[in-house]
Amino acid sequence: MPDEDDNYTPSPQLMQANEIEAIAGTFVKMGVTKIRLTGGEPLVRKDAADIIERLSKYPVELTMTTNGVRLDEFFDLLKNSRVRSLNISLDTLQAAKFKEITKRDLFDKVYSNILQALELGFRVKVNCVATKGVNDDEIHDFIALTKHLPLHVRFIEFMPFAGNRWMKEKVMGLQEILNLVSAEYDTIPITRDKHDTAKKYKVIGHEGTFAVISTMTSPFCGDCNRLRLTADGKMKNCLFSKEENDLLSAFRRGENIENLVLQNVQNKAKERGGQITDDFETKNAAALTNRSMISIGG
I need a labelling partner for 226 at 20 to 30 A (CA). Which of 49, 62, 237, 244 fits? Predict the structure, then answer.
């Protein structure tokens, strides 16, 4: 969570519900089959329900990444809108640490909503940014969650963005995580599906699974097909890309945005936005040209 005095984008500069619907329709027309609402936090928008209902009309897999705080208010809507999968961000299983990280004393609420989502039949993925000195002592605790719960815990390597005080020493990489888990459990790899960003594993005898999104130590850029549309209507072909195409301004001028979409896709760099092309440990995070993660959104 950023500092409370963070500057937020004025509402008129953001895509409105009808604009999100129309621009998403262009992507669907061009072949997109999956749409994920993410953030920031998508459910804080006053028109979140309207946006979800509008997007549910498209023949796509509709999913969401959320911090889980307000999920209980939306479960019925999500079910009726054909949302079957939820990614819920949770970087710690300790209430005090949760408050320190998020500046909100809401761990019990989030954990309760995770359990409720499972009971309601949602496929739940828990996203945990694994960071040395922050939550590296909780890896086994997260794995233990998968023993009796059909959870899919995903450890995400700490990535550099503007303002997140990234340091290479804090990155907990794929092999380190696997070594730590394997010291306690017997694990087997799960076959990777095409375009997967996560390397998936299962502890033998556990109901759930775990995975590592190894952006820093073992990038998966070769067949990544993710595209991102920021809340202010800018298109990014990679989280790390510094170039953006302004779809919203073009749309508001009445222009056909398909050429901008194609241009953005064609300009996709080979690896990590073209900004981290060598060993990440030699990279100066301050030299990256990018937004903060909270302003990238999705």
Answer: 49
Contact assessment for residue 212 and residue 157, using Cβ atoms and an 8 Å cutoff = yes
Q: What is the distance between the alpha carbons of residues 298 and 68, in angstroms, rounded to a whole number?
A: 16
Instruction: Name the residue type at position 72.
Output: D
> Checking DSSP bridges between strand 187-189 and strand 85-89, what pairing results, if any?
unpaired
3-state secondary structure of 185: coil
- As a whole number of angstroms, the distance between CA 63 and CA 43 comes to 13
Chain segment 15-61, per-residue pLDDT in tens: 999 999 999 999 999 999 999 999 779 999 999 999 999 999 999 99
**3-state DSSP call for residue 33?**
coil
Q: Which residues, including other chains, have CB under 8 Å from residue 225's CB and lie 6 or more apart?
A: 195
Q: Tokens representing 116?
A: 């409720």
| Identity at 45, one-letter amino acid code | R
Residue 233 Ramachandran class (φ > 0 left, ψ -120 to 50 alpha, else beta): left
Within 13 Å, how many C-alpha atoms sit on residue 133's CB side? 7
Give the residues across from 234 on adjacent strands. Answer: 246
Q: Which domains does the chain have, with CATH numbers?
A: 11-296 (3.20.20.70)
* Helix boundaries (H) for 156-287: 174-182, 247-252, 258-266
Per-residue pLDDT tens for 95-128? 999 999 999 999 999 999 999 999 999 999 999 9
Take residue 13 and report the two structure tokens written for it: 């500069």
Beta bridge partners of 52: none
* Nearest partner of 122 among 79, 66, 61, judged by Cα: 79
Tokens of 260: 């901008």
Q: Helices 258-266 & 17-29, crossing angle to 10 degrees?
A: 60
C-beta neighbour count of 115 within 10 angstroms: 12
